[in-house]
């Protein structure tokens, strides 16, 4: 008789069901791994697509690499905090590993001006979420990556600089340049 619960046992709470699912994955149950992947990969893929919007093959490669790391390190999950957050951190780190390997680091000397960072929010409020994401996708890779990490993932300049192996000043420049370009694109749409 098996000494672990079925992940389809209806008497388990959602948290207990997750605990059993994780423990079954650690025990290398292919069925449990498939269930975990099916449950959490759509959100992970959505995060990846914010950064890798124009290359489906690379996005899927990052998703696979992320879940390889999830399954490899699952025994390290301490059941403290949200499991979704733990997976998200692995996904973002995998994205940043990819960016470090594949994005050229730009050497920048331009000084950041305070007015570069200001965007009038009124025109932005008139855009749909989808329209705004399409505009963000047009940014150069490094600017888009820094912008997404800062705005959507709430990383600090220090964290982004460390992830991308760039200087904090370069990180600030990329963010401000992204904001400036977004401001120009948004303003051109409302004229």
Keywords:
single chain; 191 residues; Rna Polymerase Sigma Factor, Chain: A; elongated; Arc Repressor Mutant, subunit A; disordered N terminus; 10 helices; mainly alpha
Architecture overview:
The protein is built from ten helices and no strands. It has 191 residues and is mainly alpha-helical. The chain has two domains: 14-102, Rna Polymerase Sigma Factor, Chain: A (Orthogonal Bundle), CATH 1.10.1740.10; 114-190, Arc Repressor Mutant, subunit A (Orthogonal Bundle), CATH 1.10.10. The longest helix is centred in the C-terminal third of the chain and has 23 residues, at 168-190.
Short characterization:
By secondary structure, the protein is an all-alpha fold. It has helices at residues 14-26, 30-51, 56-73, 83-102, 114-117, 121-125, 129-137, 141-151, 157-164, 168-190.
Task: Furnish the topology, listing elements before pairings.
Layout: H1 14-26, H2 30-51, H3 56-73, H4 83-102, H5 114-117, H6 121-125, H7 129-137, H8 141-151, H9 157-164, H10 168-190
Mean pLDDT: 79
Write down the CATH class of the largest domain.
Answer: Mainly Alpha
Please tally the β strands and state the result: 0
CATH architecture of the largest domain: Orthogonal Bundle
> What general form does the structure show?
elongated
